[in-house]
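Try this one yourself first.
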């Protein structure tokens, strides 16, 4: 196990400033950010589905690439979760004992890196391989997710930055490795019962 530095010594003041700003902000803004923080990952699932649906009209290879996106996100989440277990950094709401919009997670629910940020970043990068437009939307949404996790008090800024890096790099490596293989596998897969998933009728 790696013994992490106390996160508050890295950017505790920045975290506290954001949390205090959230407490002074209008209720409607806090409610909107909290809702996005809690449920925003669903948007990435929708973007993945849209990407796959559009890819079917392009060809089997594009569909294989699109269908790989959720798998790549799962891999990125696994990498992030492994780092989280190694580092074991306490949540900032426990270390600094500040009032936050989101209830403070139970002890053992580690903070570094942010799973939400990693998942969002991985989805955004992977979607760029499917569609630049969808990927661009996902990049903006991923940035909003990262900011929201600090706003609600769930993470330090360095947690979300690390999560973005882990998710983005994991997805970039995985999608780059899969790109060539998708071209080779597509014809074989299209000749099986999976054809409806790969090619529009």
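Now uncover the answer:
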């Amino acid at each position: 196990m790696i013994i992490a530095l106390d996160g508050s010594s890295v950017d505790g003041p920045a975290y506290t400033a954001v949390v205090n700003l959230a407490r002074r902000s209008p209720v409607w803004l806090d409610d909107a950010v909290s809702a996005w923080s809690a449920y925003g990952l669903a948007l990435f699932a929708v973007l993945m589905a849209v990407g796959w649906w559009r890819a079917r009209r392009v060809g089997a290879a594009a569909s294989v690439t699109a269908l790989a996106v959720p798998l790549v996100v799962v891999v990125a989440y696994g990498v992030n979760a492994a780092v989280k277990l190694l580092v074991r950094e306490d949540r900032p709401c426990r270390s600094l004992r500040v009032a936050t919009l989101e209830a403070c997670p139970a002890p053992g629910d580690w903070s570094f890196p942010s799973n939400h940020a990693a998942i969002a970043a991985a989805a955004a990068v992977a979607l760029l391989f499917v569609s630049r437009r969808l990927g661009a939307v996902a990049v903006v949404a991923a940035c909003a997710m990262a900011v929201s996790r600090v706003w609600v008090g769930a993470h330090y800024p360095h947690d979300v930055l690390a999560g973005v890096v882990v998710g983005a790099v994991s997805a970039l490596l995985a999608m780059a490795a899969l790109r060539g293989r998708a071209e080779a596998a597509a014809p074989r897969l299209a000749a099986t019962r999976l054809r409806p998933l790969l090619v529009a009728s």
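Discussion: The chain is about 75% helix and 0% strand. The two ends are 52 Å apart (CA to CA).
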